[in-house]
């Protein structure tokens, strides 16, 4: 009997490690992998910490508990059925077993809590944000606004299937207007809803927040790797729930600043960027304005400002 239980446990562990080996096949970055069985690869520290908590802490504990309970059930069914044990035992309590099945789960939960609280603290301990974006969920699209860059809310819809095929992008994940953020910066997303409850979720960032009307939730992430990453709404918000993709473009800072200017905004903390088309007109206007003062050097002393001489009065005025 013991050999049979040990063999069943060994077979289950072999299957588990076989599945883990299959999960080592290359996955797509920032989007689901067809036939994939593992979590999406993460591109943020929060996402990697969450994956560690799930794969290294929770899964072994869950697997061990499942195998233990399965072994006990099989052993009890075989050892203590009516045929194998015609005379039932008369005892009703076993102090040692009762202490064990009370203390051991408490110790397991305390062990899990150490890593769980650490992860929760990391999610809530947001550094000072470099960029703030407001994401509003509607039936059925997203609206994005950049208050610091003075970019008004613009609409992001699902990209039609024919256009997605032309661009070779995943249908129902690609959007008409992406959410654009700079690489290597702390991004805070203020999430709310405009009608019903939605959910702002980007798996590779490890972020998920409910978009609730009348309430603002916030999440944050920092992506060091430029690229395109996809998410979607995770709440059943209506008939077009599947048509609420989230497409995030992570760009270098210079490219992000150029995108901000293209949207009519101004990069935070920098002088307004002049579009190339407007540069000649601005230079011409500047050249037409005389200088108000020039700097004249003075021997053995600092430079001093001198005012250009006033033009001579017109003859008519001089005669008067």
Task: Give keywords.
alpha+beta; Immunoglobulin-like; three-stranded mixed β-sheet; 7 helices
Q: What would your notes on this structure say?
A:
The chain is an alpha+beta fold. It has two domains: 2-30 and 38-124, Orthogonal Bundle (Helix Hairpins), CATH 1.10.287.90; 131-262, Immunoglobulin-like. It is built from seven helices and twelve strands. The chain has helices at residues 2-22, 45-79, 95-124, 161-167, 253-262, 279-287, 315-319; strands spanning 131-138, 141-146, 151-156, 179-182, 186-193, 198-202, 207-211, 217-222, 227-232, 245-251, 294-296, 304-306. It has a five-stranded mixed β-sheet with strand order 3-2-1-5-8, with no helix packed on it. A three-stranded mixed β-sheet has the order 4-10-9. A hairpin with a 7-residue loop joins strand 11 (294-296) and strand 12.
Mean pLDDT: 81
CATH superfamily of the largest domain: Cupredoxins -  blue copper proteins
**Number of helical stretches of at least 4 residues:** 7
| Unreliable runs | 17-23, 269-320
The termini sit apart by 128 Å
CA-based gyration radius: 33 Å
Domain count: 2
CATH topology of the largest domain: Immunoglobulin-like
Structural class: alpha+beta
What percentage of the residues does DSSP assign to strands (E)? 15-25%
Q: How would the global form be characterised?
A: elongated
| Main beta-sheet strand count, sense and barrel state | 5 strands, mixed
How many strands? 12
Listing every helix as H and every strand as E from the N terminus to the C terminus, the arrangement reads HHHEEEHEEEEEEEHHEEH
* CATH class (first level) name of the largest domain: Mainly Beta
